[in-house]
Design goal:
The complex is a heterodimer of chains A (102) and B (376).
Chain A (H helix, E strand, L loop, with lengths): L4 E8 L6 E6 L2 E6 L13 E5 L2 E6 L1 H13 L3 H10 L17
Antiparallel strand pairs in A: 1-2, 1-4, 2-3, 4-5
Chain B lengths: L9 H14 L6 E7 H9 L10 E8 L1 H4 L2 H13 L2 E5 L13 H6 L4 E3 L3 H10 L4 E6 L6 H14 L4 E5 L4 H10 L7 E4 L2 H6 L5 H5 L5 E3 L4 H17 L4 E3 L11 H10 E3 L2 E4 L3 E4 L3 E3 L8 H4 L15 H6 L30 H22 L1
Parallel strand pairs in B: 1-2, 1-7, 3-4, 3-5, 5-6, 7-8, 8-9
Antiparallel strand pairs in B: 10-13, 11-12
The chains are: A alpha+beta (102), B alpha/beta (376).
GO molecular function (chain B): 4 iron, 4 sulfur cluster binding; carbon monoxide binding; iron ion binding
Protein name (chain B): Hydrogenase formation protein HypD
Pfam families (chain B): HypD (PF01924)
Chain lengths: 102, 376
Amino acid sequence: MCLAIPGRIVGLVPGETHLGTVEVAGVRRKVDLGLLLEEMPVVGDWVLIHVGFAMTKISEQDALEQMHLLQMLGETEQAMQEVRGYGFEETGEQSSGNPQPN
Amino acid sequence: MRYVDEFRDPELIIKASEEIYRLADPDRHYRIMEVCGGHTHAIYRFGLKDILPSNIELIHGPGCPVCVLPMGRIDDGLTVATNFDVIFAAFGDMMRVPGTQGSPFEHKARGTDVRIVYSPADALQIARKNPEKHVMFFAIGFETTAPSTALTLMRAKSEGITNFSVFCNHVTIVPAIRAILDSPDMRLDAFIGPGHVSTVIGCRPYEWIARSEGKPVVTSGFEPLDLLQSLVMLLRQLRAGEARVENQYKRVVPWEGNRAALKAMAEIFQLRPYFEWRGLGFISQSALRIRDEYAEWDAEQRFPIPGTRVTDPKAAQCGEVLKGVLKPAQCKLFGKECTPEHPIGALMVSTEGSCAAYYNYEHRKAAMVTSISSVA
């Protein structure tokens, strides 16, 4: 659970200042941006995600390297399972990748 | 060099390895502790031991949150969930960790409502959707995870969600390092500092290790090249007789940490006077409890907690392995009674535990070599 998952911010949730939509290897999920209040990310930024919260902004290069690392550690599937498991999409606006009834 | 081909930049790996050979004094034996369980996993997975000089010994530290949680806390959490008809929500890593009455999964099979969540915010979401039930999030983790629990509690309070609580087992890394350094049977030369914990707390909290204990610390990333570069930085300091804190993982770790995360933690948590760590015993000011302002969301204040204390099975030597005094395979139960399929100690449960990492990579490799040579 120590390894973080890289994702790209693809949307911010109107009216929910602390939520953003990230895309991780094609899967879109809401994550909490509350730990980045001092340097709020914008659409297009890359972040490291840990237990559903964006922890820190990173460069695109570092994001790609982090994904490669997860692959080398044999943890890609576990990471994707975690991302798919985040239940945030039900709290705010629907994720475009995976619409859910409210 | 087993995995060099799949490394991103094999040439740099070879260069770093050569530099390590150049810097390491052949007449000296180096004991370097990697504090973080993620590093332990990576070191075994990449077979880094195979590309290091034999006089550099990597000692696995206490940085696996599942591994250091005393069994009594698991028992307490599951007892509350069972007796009060509470939904027990925890990360997947926790599910197979044995308590004296069985693991969370075994409790689920017996009818306790146990749910895997991937985020504390998911546990809060279960509470939103089940207003007639109480949801208790069994929180574990170091400073990497604690801020997320803190923000989740702030959201619960601001939304007035009162059927939600946190059973807090969050611990802090620095007092554990101090306990290890104070341990009389422990001799260490330097530390590979944790990567993601440091994104939250920064590098400053390690300065006393360099200043007072005279031991270098390098905060490191998780890739093979990161770890090798960190070793180069540590060896350079040791060779020059220096002891400083350096940051190899600058691309992710800010020296001052994450202020928003530290602020959220300070608002929700305060230090416990002491807390028991599996294998390390009681360590003062090493864990977090929920502040009284949030008592309504604190499972330990809402429910009667038995306060179970469990002594680990005598034959299991988790404590010695956790402190780095013994290697996993030197424990009497390793690979026999205790395997990843049937773990007795938590070090065998989590992929970040040194026993599981050792078993999955070194032990299986050795078993395969033995069976191949016996066929030949």
